[in-house]
Automatic annotation (TrEMBL):
A Pfam family hit: NMT1_2
Protein known as: ABC transporter substrate-binding protein
Keywords associated with the record: Cell inner membrane, Cell membrane, Ion transport, Membrane, Transport
Compartmental location: Cell inner membrane
InterPro entries: NrtA/CpmA_ABC-bd_dom, TAT_signal
Family per similarity comment: Belongs to the CmpA/NrtA family.
């Protein structure tokens, strides 16, 4: 193992580490000054509105975003004038973390903001680690675009990217990975058994636990899960505060290309569940009730922005735009390096898993981040686009909250909660006004082949699905906070 992982922590080391992490967070999140894109671009000013601001109940709104790749539709809606097109005067506000993005909605600081896919569900069911609040979402911002990073010590032990296990072991890949994963953790002291995710209701936490359990390692007993804001992930691995993390890009690529020797990508989220939703456009239920015209304008602007981000010919421009300090600030410091060195892999689809043996692990794929159009390899229904929400996926998130002890049992009124939180009905109405076709059903079965453990999800029997897992919590467990 590297020197970082042999390090014995003293109080002084801890304080220095916290200081370094805090400094990185303050720098990356631009807490002082420039907290969001300001004013209107020339392109936006040239756009002729199709909706008059005076016809909206609340044309001046504040919209949050977090400095990860999926802020792209917000950046594009601002730059290209999609907000202006629909009569909105939007102030974009850069959020320090997914917790502040969610809480900004709950406490009224933000009118709308992206939230992790489990936030709406967990706020509705009052899951551990989530504030109980009537959050809503009527569209998905993107699918995929995230990954799991492991540190160099895990590489040195013999762990490799998931696709290499598949290439080497075929149908026995999960068992082989589980053996390596188990052997690694068996040799670690408690302080070196730490995974980080961005929020307790993020699908990332569920993926980390899902993968571990599928491999035969009980995540409730074998390691801790802590909460760390995206821009702090790399620094925390560097100082030895954690061994692995799951986050949206570009913070996995930063561990490979920006900090050589820090880590490698074990798997993209799409390898845990192909086609999974990631971020939703969150608002409070009261916003929809009080400002229905404003809300419709916002969703329309964001759908058009997602359509723009989805087109192959626009992706380079999108990847370049979000390197701006107002968005991710992920610009390479090395002279001559491509501007999209960090943001490009997730947006353009030339994803590099990294590694420490000099091998090229760049993989080109059309489904690395999905903003609107689904590539052919991702199962989808006729007329379905990635901005559409399936309420059945809200049910899946509830099964995971129950599985990992965030709630005592699966909610008896799950369908009602899904109906209130995931506003598929509103999306369908808004899409129709835009001439966009979408599925007429709210629920669908997720086929076995899309999950890493080949376990089919039928939303008509969520309790049976939950009980089919051998590794699960029988009661709420403590969630370790950073």
């Amino acid at each position: 193992m590297g020197d970082t992982n042999k390090h014995i922590w003293t109080r002084r080391d801890f304080l220095l580490g916290v200081g370094a992490t805090t400094a990185t967070a303050l720098s990356s999140c631009s807490i002082t000054g420039n907290t969001g894109a300001k004013g209107l671009t020339e392109e936006a000013l040239a756009v002729k509105p199709v909706v008059r601001s005076q016809d909206l109940e609340k044309p001046d709104i504040t919209v949050g975003y977090v400095p990860v790749n999926d802020c792209a539709p917000f950046a594009i809606a601002w730059k290209k004038g999609f907000f202006r097109k629909y009569g909105l005067n939007v102030r974009l506000n850069r959020e320090a973390s997914w917790a502040t993005s969610r809480d900004g909605l709950i406490f009224g600081r933000l009118d709308a903001s992206p939230v992790v896919s489990g936030s709406v569900t967990n706020a509705r069911i009052g899951a551990e680690g989530a504030r109980h609040a009537p959050l809503c979402a009527a569209m998905t911002i993107h699918h995929h675009g995230n990954a799991m990073t492991m540190n160099k010590a895990m590489w040195d032990f013999g762990l490799r990217p998931w696709y290499e296990y598949q290439q080497k072991y075929g149908d026995g890949a999960l068992e082989a990975f589980g053996k390596d994963f188990r052997n690694y953790f068996d040799q670690q002291p408690p302080e070196r058994k730490v995974w980080a995710v961005v929020l307790s209701s993020a699908i990332y936490e569920y993926f980390v636990r899902y993968l571990s359990a599928a491999a035969g390692v009980d995540p409730l007993k074998e390691f801790r899960v802590i909460i760390v804001p995206p821009p702090q992930m790399v620094t925390n691995v560097r100082i030895g505060a954690m061994q692995a993390y799951m986050v949206a890009e570009p913070w996995n690529t930063r561990a490979i290309k920006g900090n050589e020797g820090i880590g490698f990508t074990f798997a993209q989220g799409k390898e845990i569940w192909l086609g999974h939703p990631d971020r939703l456009l969150g608002v409070m239920e009261s916003f929809i009730v009080k400002y229905p015209k404003t809300y419709r304008s916002l969703v329309k602007a964001m759908i058009e922005a997602c359509q723009y981000c989805s087109k192959p010919e626009n992706r380079k421009e999108v990847a370049e735009l979000i390197t701006d300090r107002s968005f991710t600030g992920a610009k390479p410091k090395k002279k001559g390096a491509p501007l999209t060195k960090f943001t490009g892999p997730g947006i353009l689809g030339n994803y590099n898993y990294g590694g420490f043996d000099g091998k090229d692990r760049a993989v080109k794929a059309a489904d690395t981040t999905i903003f609107y159009d689904f590539p052919d390899n991702v199962p989808h229904e006729p007329g379905e686009h990635s901005t559409f929400l399936w309420r059945s996926r809200s049910i899946w998130l509830m099964t995971q909250a129950a599985r990992w002890g965030q709630i005592h049992s699966f909610p008896q009124n799950a369908e009602k909660l899904a109906e209130k939180g995931w506003r598929t009905d509103l999306y369908r109405e808004i899409a129709a006004e835009m001439g966009i076709k979408c599925p007429q059903d709210d629920y669908k079965v997720e086929p076995a082949e899309v999950f890493i453990d080949k376990k089919r999800f039928d939303p008509s029997d969520p309790v049976g699905y939950l009980k089919s897992f051998e590794i699960r919590a029988n009661a709420p467990t403590r969630f370790f906070m950073s």
